[in-house]
Amino acid sequence: MLENLLLGLSDVFNVLSLFYMFLGVTCGIVVGAIPGLSGPIAIALCIPLTYYMSPVAAIGFLVGINKGGTFGGSIASILLNTPGSPESSATCYDGYPLALQGKGEKALKCSLFSSFFGDTISALSLIVLSIPLAAVALKLSPPDLCAIMVFSQVLVSGLDSASIGKSLIAASLGMLLSTVGMDCFGDERLTFDNLTLSAGIPLMSVAIGTMALSELVFQMQPQFLSMKTGAEASCGASKEDCTLTPREMKRVMPTAMRSSIIGVVVGVLPGLGSTMAAFMAYGTAKKASKNPEEFGKGSLEGVSAPEAANNAIIGANLVPLLTLGIPGNVSAAIIMGALILHGLTPGPLMFEESPRIIYGIYCAVLMAGFMNLFCGWFGLPLFIRVLGTPRNLLYPVVMFTCMVGSYLADNSIFCTLVMLILAVLGFFMRKLGYSFVTFLIGFVLGPGFEMSLQQSLTISGNQLDIFYTRPIPIILAFGSLLMIYRIYKQWKKEKDSTGGDAEETVDLS
Amino acid sequence: MRKQEIIINFFLLAFALGMIFWIIPAWTAEPTEYGLAGGTLPSLCCWSIATLATFQIISGVLKGIRENDGKGITWPVMLHMVKWFAPMFCIVPLWYYFGFLTGSIPVLFVLLLLGGRRDWKIIVPVAVGIPVLIMLALLYGLQVPTP
């Protein structure tokens, strides 16, 4: 263990890996600070660059983007009241009032401090939880894994969209798309005699198309374009209003600690997501506060709670990814794709086959938090300036980089074409309220699910009783049905409260 | 449920059934005696889409069909989509026939114009500079051949 730890440390603490991590955090903060763009979009855009990195440097780079993107989201929330990412929405409640009081920089520093706190707690939880969980995961048989994947997909589908039907359709479409290429026996499947398709549809084309490019075209609609993007940071504010004092740090510490724990618990469970964690942490902080009346008017605890929680998700989300090979959210799904690109299969066997990489990932996740603190603290004035770049200049350039990025997937123009087609699909999905998150997770889980199904049927001699004679599949099947029933009940309740029009709650703008 | 959503669900149902009965049997290998046939997972996914779309149609019809109240896919939205995606799709033949630089500059130029920028002093350097920079980064940084 010590040997692997030292090797992992040497993989992270070299100039190149640290530089990539620094680059990742910086890119993440810049992209996250632009309203409408978020960490996962930046990750999707930057996957092509990881081809040229070692696996540990690539994961450090991508985790750095994710962490930077989450903090970047809070910059737009606090200064513009327009969250850069959904998980930063809760930060607007108290961050923006603080900015209006000329304490924007103080709020940002508080957000950064809390993000660092959440990052560190979640990295430690990853280190502590993943090895014992991987030991348990190794005892799981293929039918158990099948059931876990179905349950995770239902869980993600149920929580990501207002309509579970639409979400499950999106997941099925994603899984269907993943079957293009070769089947388990190496025969061509749904390739339409196209040689390029026989290698399957590259994850990068799917991620860039459905997540990044479709979002950019969506954001270029006139109603979004007219929104203000430039920020005037709290100019002329006194030094006192810009500084986060040790006393204030001490005051927000219990909130940051509590919110980080909430973030870790939510992050370990696939599908619950950082937005939910941020709002749960905000609500809990308000309940626990001695001055709940200050919340919503510019409370530092109100900034600290959602930021610590949504950053604590990042490391915790890697627990199900590394131990079971199940991505908990869209960022984890893309990181899983990046691991696969580097010839690694996330799952319990990775702990036995590539322990050096596992320890390298631990160190990278821990180090990325420090890098985020460093870049955020010293680069704050620069990142604030990025918010002033006109959207109609920035977005066309990012659209162009999307096209170049998808080309890099296989050095093939065909990948760009596939990406563009998927971007059109992603745009329709956004407009019609179908979840592209479940679509992407379905796409990523597809091959693993088929493999487990194949193994299960081979073990049982093509008998389906293997799925209903084992405890884990039975329990998870009941869990899935219960989940669907609960979502249906919630939908029914919303329908009653909105006067029979629950679907209006889905954002179709 | 809106009329448009019913139409979308009918489209999904038709797509899934088309896949199950025509595309999947034609483009997957014959099942073997053991293990999972190549067409099983795609068929499972399509059956799931067909079932869910049918449920959505039935529940929509039972609840009552409403007119599209300016939400979802409207003509202005379609126009917006075509306006933005058309030049992007053009990049594929442009890269293929004219190369990276010659193909990229006009597309980026059009995208900037579509975004509403009319200041030539910015549009021209950006439309030329960004593809040149990316090309240099690809050729000399990542050592990847450009399209």
Structural class of chain A: mainly alpha
- Terminal residue distance of chain A: 52 Å
Q: How large is the count of helical segments of chain B?
A: 5
Average pLDDT metric of chain A:
81
Mean pLDDT of chain B: 89
Largest sheet of chain B: none
Oligomer: heterodimer
How many DSSP-defined strands of chain A? Answer: 2
Between the first and last Cα atoms of chain B, what is the distance in angstroms? Answer: 46 Å
Reconstruct the topology from this structure.
The complex is a heterodimer of chains A (509) and B (147).
Chain A: H1 2-12, H2 15-33, H3 39-50, H4 55-80, H5 89-100, H6 104-138, H7 142-160, H8 164-178, E1 181-182, E2 188-189, H9 203-219, H10 222-225, H11 239-242, H12 246-268, H13 273-288, H14 300-324, H15 330-341, H16 348-353, H17 355-386, H18 391-407, H19 413-432, H20 436-460, H21 471-497
Antiparallel strand pairs in A: 1-2
Helix pairs in contact in A: 1-17, 2-3, 2-4, 2-17, 3-4, 3-9, 3-15, 3-18, 4-5, 4-6, 4-14, 4-15, 4-17, 5-6, 5-14, 6-12, 6-14, 6-17, 7-8, 7-20, 7-21, 8-20, 9-18, 9-19, 9-20, 12-13, 12-14, 13-14, 14-15, 15-20, 18-19
Chain B: H1 3-27, H2 40-63, H3 75-98, H4 100-114, H5 120-141
Helix pairs in contact in B: 1-2, 3-4, 4-5
Tell me what you see in this structure.
The complex is a heterodimer of chains A (509) and B (147). By secondary structure, chain A is mainly α. Chain A has a domain at 2-141 and 204-412. Chain A contains 21 helices and 2 strands. Chain A has helices spanning 2-12, 15-33, 39-50, 55-80, 89-100, 104-138, 142-160, 164-178, 203-219, 222-225, 239-242, 246-268, 273-288, 300-324, 330-341, 348-353, 355-386, 391-407, 413-432, 436-460, 471-497, and strands at 181-182, 188-189. In chain A, strands 1-2 form a two-stranded antiparallel sheet. In chain A, a hairpin with a 5-residue loop joins strand 1 and strand 2 (188-189). In chain A, helix 3 packs parallel to helix 15 (330-341) and helix 13 (273-288) packs across helix 14. The longest helix of chain A has 35 residues, at 104-138. Chain A is globular and about 75 Å long. By secondary structure, chain B is mostly helical. Chain B is 75% helix and 0% strand. Chain B has helices spanning 3-27, 40-63, 75-98, 100-114, 120-141. In chain B, helix 1 runs antiparallel to helix 2 (40-63), helix 3 runs antiparallel to helix 4 (100-114) and helix 4 (100-114) packs antiparallel against helix 5. The longest helix of chain B has 25 residues, at 3-27. The two termini of chain B are 46 Å apart.
